[in-house]
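Weekly modeling sync, notes
Attendees: AB, CL, MP (scribe)

Item 1: holo prediction request
CL wants a bound-state model with dinuclear copper ion before deciding which constructs to order. AB pointed out that an apo prediction alone won't tell us much about the pocket. Agreed to run with the ligand included and paste results into these notes for async review.

Input as submitted:
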Amino acid sequence: MGKLHLFPEQASTLAPEVDHLLYFLVAVTVFFSLLIFFAIFFFAIKYRRRSAGELPHVQHTGYTLEILWSVIPFGITMVMFTWGAAVFFNAARPPKDAIQIYAVGKQWMWKLEHMEGLREINELHIPVGRAVRLTMTSEDVIHSFFVPAFRTKQDVVPGKYSTVWFQPTKTGKYHLFCAEYCGSRHSGMIGWVYVMEPQDYENWLSGGAGEGSLAQNGQKLFESLACNNCHKSDHSGRCPSLEGVYNSNVKLASGATVKADEAYIRESILNPEAKIVAGYEPVMPTFQGLVTEDQVLQLIEYVRSIGPKTPAGAAPTSPAPAEKQASPGSVPAKR
Ligand code: CUA
C-alpha cells in the first residue's frame, strides 16, 4: 500500500516479543551513539589547545564517576541478557498441546508432513491461534527454516532433529524461506505458510487425507520391513518391545541411560549398534540407505503412537517420571 515496511508483519505470539526486545536494543544503541558523538565534539571544543606551549593539568576526581560508568552499563547489559534469555527460552519450549508437524529440507524444497498423513511441498497449512511444533531434519545439507512474519528461524541439519514452534495470531499467507546457503538453487527454496481459520483448516485436512496417518504408514512400513519379527510387543522377540518406549529412559548395555526421543529412535534405525539396550544382543541390521528421512519419521511416529499415552497431538516433551530416571553407571535397582 505504498507504505515503507521496516519490519515484516507480526503474525505470531513470538513476533511482538522479538520486536520489543529489538526496539530496546536499538534505542539503547542510538542513545549511547548520540551521547558519545556529542561528547566527542563537546570535549574537543571545550578542552582544545589554546596556545602553542600549553600542557594540560593533571586532574584527580573521585571514584563516583568511574563507578557510575561501570555500574550503569553493567545494569543495562544485564537487562539485555535476562530479557533476551526469557524470549529465547519461550521460543525454545513448545507448549504441550502444540500440533506436531514434520519437516524435511532437501535441495531444494521443503517437505512437510501432518500427523494425519497429509504431505505438502513448499506449503504449510496451519490453523490460527494454535501452537504448532515442527520437528525438522535434512536429507542432504544444512538448510534453515525461516518465516519472517513469525520471527522464527531454525537450522535444519542432516542426521539430527531440530524443533521450532510458533503460534500464528492472524490468518493470511506468509513467506517461508530457506535462510542457509544450500547450493545453486538456494534462492528458489521458498514457499508459503497459510494460516487458516480452524474450520477451514479442518476442511482442508479432511480434503486431502486418504493415504493414512503418519503413524499408520509407519506401522505398515514396520511390518513390511519385518521389524515386527524381532520387536514383538509381548517381549518374546530377540529385540526389545517398542511399546511404551517413546520418551522413556532406556538402560543400555554400556550401563548408561538414554532418553528414547526422536534422535535416539532415528539412530537406532540407521545405526543400531551405536546404543545396545541392556540384556540384548547387537543383532539388528542397519537400515541406512533402505529408508528415507520421510520413512524414518513415519517409523518414529509409529513408535510414538504405541508409546506412553499423551493427549492427541500433544508435543512429546514431557519428561519421564523422576523415579524412573537412573544416572549413568548406577546399579540397576529392583523396583
Ligand atoms: Cu535450503 Cu538454502
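Recorded for review: The helical segments are 14-46, 64-92, 198-208, 214-224, 262-270, 293-305.
Action items: CL to compare against the apo run; MP to circulate these notes.
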